[in-house]
């Protein structure tokens, strides 16, 4: 049985999509004759906590933990709420940022490269070097962001003749929020240099999208495999569908995930269609930026909105399965065409139709079309969005609103772990 050391930052009780990819891989790897050993911080300051995920951690999995010094603890002396917001990935529009907002972003971007967990690299390398000497492993896997995890892998690869796989759940320098970090030219170049070094030092690179793979192929000639995120077959009773015509977004709604055409389309439908007005409810489940809330108020939709806030993963799955229509929104930017949110696959597994908005030519649009699980629109398609919502509403009224997905089995966590095992065994 091959032994694989997995170096990660996010691990239960952390909540959110960042933890679930490797939580599920670790769950299924033993089925493919691979023994995972997980290395994570023991006292991390996670922006989101979900105790429900702890039950997915097998008691038979070896987990190694070491302390981490989190700079966000110091930064919270300036403002605890602002620090937690930045840590969770929500960044205000530049024109609405206070002096403290700008200062925290500048410090985060220029003093902590590649990220706020860089201080964990040296002590982790020292600890793991001793561990590997006593307990040899066959493969080292690092998963980021935070991309500091890859720096740990790069240093260990220099010390040991073992295969190193670098898993990128998101891009590095091309990700949307990277430009929001107030980087100096020197800091921006350091990010690029580190990205280049990691991609060319790893034996194998994993990405979650084909767009990111293409971007990385311009930087390295190392083998790159695409293993998307996916869904697990959850042992949950299927809830009844909502009586209302609920359009639900599950997950964080960042400031720039703000399609005004959607809010305008809904406003126009509410004005023109009395029965829609009586049936409609917009559910926002998860962290929502103040900019989104302000825009919703601007379009006078607030009386139809239910702000539910963060819920456990189990509750999120229940909301997905009971909603009439699931909403997926990505930032309208070329930099996000390769971002495939983890919740997309859970949406598909929920067997409810998906209404998605984002940039043209995105990987999400391709997946929705291939699996027949939803409709996708750009930020310019006002009439098309409006007609799609009205079409879904008409089917809701007749009880025929449903999703007829095809090929979903290829995105199950078990099937994706089989693909990962093939990469590990190359």
How would you describe this protein?
The chain is α/β, with parallel strands linked by helices. It has helices at residues 17-28, 71-75, 80-87, 99-111, 121-134, 148-159, 185-201, 210-217, 260-272, 274-279, 290-298, 313-322, 343-349, 363-371, 382-398, 413-424; strands at residues 2-7, 34-41, 62-66, 139-144, 163-168, 204-207, 224-226, 245-250, 280-285, 305-307, 325-329, 354-357, 374-377. The strands form two sheets. It has a seven-stranded parallel sheet with strand order 3-2-1-4-5-6-7. α5 (121-134) crosses α6 (148-159) and α9 (260-272) packs across α15 (382-398). The longest helix is centred in the middle third of the chain and has 17 residues, at 185-201. The model is unreliable at 73-80 and 82-90 (pLDDT under 50).
Features:
6-stranded parallel β-sheet; 426 residues; single chain; alpha/beta
- Into which percentage range does the β-strand content fall? 15-25%
- What's the rounded overall pLDDT mean? 90
Order of strands side by side in the largest beta sheet?
A: 3-2-1-4-5-6-7
**SSE string, helix = H, strand = E?**
EHEEHHHHEHEHEHEEHHEHEHEHEHEHH
Q: End-to-end distance, in Å?
A: 14 Å
**Oligomeric state of the chains in view:** single chain
Integer-rounded radius of gyration:
22 Å
Low-confidence stretches: 73-80, 82-90
Largest sheet: 7 strands, parallel
Helix content: 40-55%
Query: Could you tell me the number of beta strands?
Result: 13
Strand-pairing-aware structural class: alpha/beta
Count of helical stretches: 16
What's the overall geometry? globular
């Amino acid at each position: 049985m091959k032994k694989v050391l997995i170096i990660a930052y996010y691990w239960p009780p952390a909540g959110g999509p960042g933890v679930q990819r490797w939580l599920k891989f670790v769950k299924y790897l033993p089925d493919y004759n691979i023994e995972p050993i997980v290395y994570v911080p023991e006292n991390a300051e996670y922006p989101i906590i979900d105790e429900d995920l702890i039950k997915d951690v097998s008691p038979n999995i070896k987990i190694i933990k070491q302390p981490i010094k989190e700079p966000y603890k110091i930064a919270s002396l300036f403002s605890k709420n602002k620090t937690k917001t930045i840590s969770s990935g929500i960044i205000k529009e530049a024109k609405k940022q206070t002096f403290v907002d700008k200062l925290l972003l500048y410090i985060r971007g220029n003093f902590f490269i590649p990220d706020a967990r860089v201080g964990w690299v040296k002590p982790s390398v020292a600890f793991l070097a001793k561990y590997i000497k006593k307990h040899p492993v066959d493969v080292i896997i690092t998963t980021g962001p935070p991309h500091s995890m890859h720096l740990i892998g790069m240093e260990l690869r220099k010390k040991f003749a073992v295969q190193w796989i670098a898993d990128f759940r998101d891009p590095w320098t091309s990700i949307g929020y990277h430009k929001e970090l107030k980087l100096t030219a020197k800091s921006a170049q350091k990010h690029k240099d580190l990205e280049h070094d990691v991609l060319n030092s790893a034996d194998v690179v994993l990405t979650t999208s084909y767009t990111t793979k293409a971007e990385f192929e311009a930087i390295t000639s190392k083998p790159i495999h695409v293993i998307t995120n996916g869904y697990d077959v959850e042992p949950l009773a299927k809830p009844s569908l909502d009586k209302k015509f609920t359009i639900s977004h599950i997950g964080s709604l960042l400031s720039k995930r703000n399609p005004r055409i959607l809010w305008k389309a809904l406003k126009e439908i509410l004005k023109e269609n009395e029965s829609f007005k009586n049936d409609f409810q917009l559910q926002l489940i998860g962290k929502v930026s103040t900019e989104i809330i302000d825009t919703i108020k601007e379009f006078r939709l607030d009386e139809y909105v239910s702000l539910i806030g963060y819920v456990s993963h189990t509750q999120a799955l229940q909301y997905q399965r009971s909603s009439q229509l699931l909403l997926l929104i990505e930032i309208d930017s070329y930099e996000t065409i390769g971002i495939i949110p983890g919740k997309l696959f859970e949406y598909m597994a929920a067997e409810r139709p998906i209404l998605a908005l984002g940039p043209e030519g995105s990987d999400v649009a391709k997946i929705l079309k291939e699996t027949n699980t939803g409709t996708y629109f750009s930020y310019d398609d006002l009439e098309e969005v409006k007609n799609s919502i009205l079409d879904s509403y008409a089917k809701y009224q007749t009880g025929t609103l449903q999703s007829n997905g095809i090929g979903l089995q290829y995105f199950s966590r078990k099937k994706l772990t089989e693909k990962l095992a093939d990469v590990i065994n190359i």
